[in-house]
Amino acid sequence: MKINDNTILITGGATGIGFALAEAFVKEGNEVIICGRRENKLEEAKSKLPQIHTRVCDLTKDKEREALYNWVKTDFKDINVLVNNAGIQRMVDFKKGISSLTEGENEIDINLTAPIHLSAYFIPLLLKQKESAIINVSSGLGFIPMAIMPVYCATKAAMHSFSLSIRHQLRDTSIKVFEVIPPMVDTELDKGARDERGQVDKGIPPAEVAKATLKGLEKNEYEIAIGMAQNLRMGARTNPEQVC
Ligand SMILES: NC(=O)c1ccc[n+]([C@@H]2O[C@H](COP(=O)([O-])OP(=O)(O)OC[C@H]3O[C@@H](n4cnc5c(N)ncnc54)[C@H](OP(=O)(O)O)[C@@H]3O)[C@@H](O)[C@H]2O)c1
């Protein structure tokens, strides 16, 4: 796909990988819209990138997803790219029973339900454009799961499956479906859990993910596996029972 002159909505675009993508897309001459729940993070992003448009939105709430869709449809008629990037990651210990699962935010709502619903909202709009794309951010952990975060890994495996299906459904349309598969990236995704576990390696910088993503998009590489994620993606095929 062309990586300039697009109008792009990036969910969770105020921080981490989403913000790095916003920066890279703005640099290439795209119109970029970002959304997230925290207004202060959106303001911070806008102070660094004054060209971007921001919207406070909790994507776990259908009313807010619908309002986001209506706002974009009205104010950004040329929208042709949806980046499903927003996500959370939690450790869940099933030995502790239901409380471990329900005491925090619901990963399925944000990592899986939200991108599926947003795709359903936006696909009819994207179909009207000559060239358009959906870019789903999954994870290397969708291919080889990490046992301490079972729900997260399951949502990312599901995003891989969903990407395959809609890519096939949309194969004769203007919409290309990409999946970005990052390795471990140095962001606030795990809310300090890596530090608590004493994990030294924090992963690659988000800017590296953005650079590899734009390169992959330009080459129409539909599964953009980055760094270590390339090994996880292949490893899952050679040893399907592997867990880390
Ligand atoms: N970091 C890694 O190692 C890694 C590896 C592979 C894949 N990924 C994937 O990359 C994506 C981006 O994560 P990141 O690493 O860049 O972490 P991040 O900086 O924490 O970004 C996540 C973004 O999602 C937004 N978000 C979370 N819940 C939301 C909700 N209910 N409604 C709207 N926005 C919401 C957050 O903003 P608010 O909190 O303000 O809403 C935040 O801006 C995620 O899908 C993640 O699974 C990350």
User: What distance lies between the first and last C-alpha atoms, to the nearest angstrom?
Assistant: 35 Å
Largest sheet: 7 strands, parallel
* Overall 3D form: globular
Helical coverage, percent range? 40-55%
Hetero compounds: NADP nicotinamide-adenine-dinucleotide phosphate
Strand content: 5-15%
For this structure, the CATH topology is Rossmann fold
Number of domains: 1
Q: What is the H/E string? A: EHEHEHEHHEHEHHEH
CATH architecture identity: 3-Layer(aba) Sandwich
Poorly predicted ranges: none
Tell me, what is the CATH class? Alpha Beta
Give the helix/strand class.
Answer: alpha/beta
**Annotated CATH homologous superfamily:** NAD(P)-binding Rossmann-like Domain
Number of strands: 7
Mean pLDDT: 96
Question: What is the tally of helical segments?
Answer: 9
Using the CA coordinates, give the radius of gyration: 17 Å
Strand order in the largest sheet: 3-2-1-4-5-6-7
Produce the secondary structure layout.
Elements: E1 7-11, H1 16-27, E2 31-36, H2 39-48, E3 53-56, H3 62-75, E4 81-84, H4 98-102, H5 107-126, E5 132-137, H6 150-169, E6 175-181, H7 193-196, H8 206-218, E7 223-225, H9 229-238
Parallel strand pairs: 1-2, 1-4, 2-3, 4-5, 5-6, 6-7
Helix pairs in contact: 1-8, 3-5, 5-6
The chain binds NADP nicotinamide-adenine-dinucleotide phosphate.
